[in-house]
Amino acid sequence: MCVGGLGLNGGSGAFGVTGTVWGGKRAEASPAKGKSGHAAEDQDALDLAADWADICQGLKKDLGPQLFNQWIRPIQLGAFNKDSGTLELFLPTEFSANWVADRFADRLTLAWKIARDVRHVRISAQPGRRAMPDLRLARDNTPTRPAPVLGDSGRVHGHATEGASAATDTLALASIGLDPSLTFPTFVTGTSNVLAFNAAQRMAALEAPQFSPLYLKAATGQGKTHLMHAIGHAFLANHPRARIFYCSAERFMVEFVQALRQNQMIEFKSRLRGFDLLLVDDIQFIIGKASAQEELLYTIDALLAEGKRLVFAADRSPQALDGVEQRLLSRLSMGLVADIIPADIELRRSVLEHRLARFTSVDVPGDVIEFLARTINRNVRELVGGLNKLIAYAQLTGQAVCLQLAEEQLTDILSANRKRITIDEIQRTVCQFYRVDRQEMSSKRRARAVVRPRQVAMYLSKVLTPRSYPEIGRKFGGRDHSTVIHAVRLIEDLRTRDADIDGDVRSLLRQLES
Question: What is the tens place of the pLDDT at every residue in 404-416?
C-alpha cells in the first residue's frame, strides 16, 4: 500500500511529499480505495511528522546544534509498519547511516517509543542512491578496472582500444568518479572565482605547479566540486596515462575502515600512493577517526615527496576544520588556499546566460534573467536549479516564460534566498556612498548634493523592500507619497539616460545584496 510519505528536515516541522512506502514494499494504490482510507493514511503521515518535529527539538537540546545539524537534521522518515512496529529512517549516505546507527540508535528508538507505538527503528542509507565505483586493488596491486587513457582527440578510450563508443567513454570517466559535464569550458568565471579557476588550471597543466596541495574553499553550491572534476579531466588530457583518484573525505574514511577490518592496509596504502593526482572533496568530514587522519597525513607526505599533485576542497578554511589533527591542518594549508566567494550579480547573470545557450528553443526574456540573478543569490547551484525548473515547467505545460510565471513557480527558492533589507540599512549605505550626513535623509534641504542621494535611497527602498510609498515617505522625514513616486520614476528614467547614475545604483545594489 503506497501513500504520500514525508521528506523531513529534522527539527523544522516542515515536510514535502516524497513517496514513502508503508509496509516496506511499494505497490500501486487500489482504485477501489475510498477517500476515507486515504484521509486516514494522510493523517497518520501528518501525525508521524509532528512526532518527529517534537523529537528533533529534544535531540537538538541534548546533542547541541553542531551534532544535531550534522547527523540528525539530514534524517528522512521512511515507512512505518504498524504490524511489526518498525519505523525506517533514511540518511543520504551509507557512511552517515552507519555513524548514526552506531551512536544514536538507542536514543532514537527510546524517543520513538515514548512518542508512539514504535518498537524498532531501522536506520539505513536512502534507497536508490548511486553506488560508488569499485576501485579496490587486485592481489598484484594493480587496479581491477584499468585507468582511462585519452586518445589524440582528447576523447577517453577504454584501455587504449580504438573506436570505443561514447557510452564506454562515459563509463571510463565514471570509474574514477568524474562527471563528464564538469569541465573548465563549462565553468563560468568572474571576479569572485577567478583565483580558484586559474589555480585549478595550473594544477592540471603539463608543467609541475608551483604549489601543492591546492585547497579550494567555498560555501555549498559555489563551484568547488566543479573545479575538482575539471582538474581531473584536464590532467588526463595533458597526462594520458596518469592515474587519478577522486573521492569524498567520507568515502576515504569508509574505505580506510574497510581495509582495516579486512586486514588489507598494505594494499590500501599502496593504491593511494600510486596515484599521480589525488582529489579529495568535502575534507571537513575527516572527523573522529584519528587513524584515518594519520593515514591521510602520511599519504600527503608520500605523494608530495614524489612530486605528485593533490587537491582538497572544503566549505571552510583549514584552520576552521573541527576535530582534525594539527599536523594534518598544516599539510592542508601549506600549498595554496584559494577562496571562491559568493557570486556577485554580474557572475550570476553570466551563469544564467551560459546555461540558456543549452536551451535554444526556449525564449527567456531579459527581465526574467535579471529577476533570477537578483533574487537567487545564495549559491550558483540554486540559481541554475531555479532556471532549470522554470524552463522545464514552461516546456511541459506549453506556457511562455515570463516574470509572473517565475514568481509563481519558484516561490520556495525565492523565499529561501530573500534577504530582509531595511530602509534604515539603505539610508546608511547611501549616505556612506555619497558621503552625506545621515540626517539629510530626513531634512528639508533641497541642495542637489543632498536631493539626489535622497532620491536614490527612496528608489532603492521601493525596489528592495515591500514597503508602500506612504511608508517610505514617513521614513524620509514624513514626506508625502507623491514625493516618493516622483523620486522613483525620476531615478528609473535617469538610469536609462545617465551612465553615472546607473553605475551608482548598480554599486549600491551590489553592496546591499551582498
Answer: 888 888 877 776 6
